[in-house]
Every structure is written in C-alpha cells, then in structure tokens.
Amino acid sequence: MTVQMNIAEAKARLSELVAAAENGEEVILARSGRAVVRIVPVANRRFRIGMMDGMVEKIPDFLEPMSEEELRLWE
After folding, report:
1. HEC assignment per residue over 9-65
2. What's the burial of 27, exposed, middle or buried (CB within 10 Å: 0-12/13-18/19+)?
3. Quick one: which of 39, 41, 57, 67 has the most CB atoms within 10 Å?
4. pLDDT of residue 47
5. CA within 13 Å, CB half, 6
6. Helix, strand or coil for residue 2?
7. Which residue from 73, 6, 75 is spatially nearest to 34, judged by alpha carbons?
8. Is the model more confident about 46 or about 1?
9. Residue 26: which of 15, 34, 37 has the closest Cα?
10. Which domains does the chain carry?
11. Contact partners, residue 40, CB within 8 Å, separation at least 6
12. C-alpha span between 16 and 70 (Å, rounded)
C-alpha cells in the first residue's frame, strides 16, 4: 500500500508516517501535489556480541606470532 500526502499535513502526522514505513508501506511526501520525497526505514544493523559463546574453544591472539606448524599451513 502506498501513502502519499502533502508536507503540510505530514508535519502533524510524522509519527504515523514513520510507523507506516517501518511496517513496509511506501510513504511519499508531496509538495503542491508532486511527489518529492520517500520515507524508508533504515536497515537494522544490530551486531550481537557473543553469539557464538561456548562454540569457540580458544580465541586466537592475532598479535601473537604463528607457530611453525601454522606457518607451514600458509605456505
């Protein structure tokens, strides 16, 4: 569903328009009846730390020199 309204009306209904965009509706703002702006949600980029908790036995120390065996594996 597409929601289109003039900017003057949108000022009073901004929260409603943002909620509509977050729910997947297309929201377009118009000036003098001409579409000028589209409101779209920002992609959710949450980063969860610890999501592999307990699955990794040893966290490598990247500043520690590699062992001879590790160096051989890279050759």
Report:
1. HHHHCHHHHHHHHHCCCEEEEEECCEEEEEECCCCCCCCCCCCCCCCCCCCCCCCCC
2. buried
3. 39
4. 60
5. 5
6. strand
7. 6
8. 1
9. 37
10. 2-39 (3.40.1620.10)
11. 21, 27
12. 57
pLDDT tens per residue across span 49-58: 666 666 666 6
Q: pLDDT for 8-46, tens place per residue? A: 999 999 999 999 999 999 999 999 999 999 999 887 766
Q: Which CA distances in Å does 72 have to 11, 61, 67? A: 65, 18, 9
User: Alpha carbon 66 to chain centroid distance?
Assistant: 36
What does the alpha-carbon distance between residue 37 and residue 29 come to, in Å, rounded to a whole number? 5
Q: Could you tell me whether strands 26-31 and 2-6 are parallel, antiparallel, or unpaired per DSSP bridges?
A: parallel
What is the per-residue pLDDT for 42?
85
Task: Give pTM, 2 decimals.
Answer: 0.55
Structure tokens at 47: 């980063």
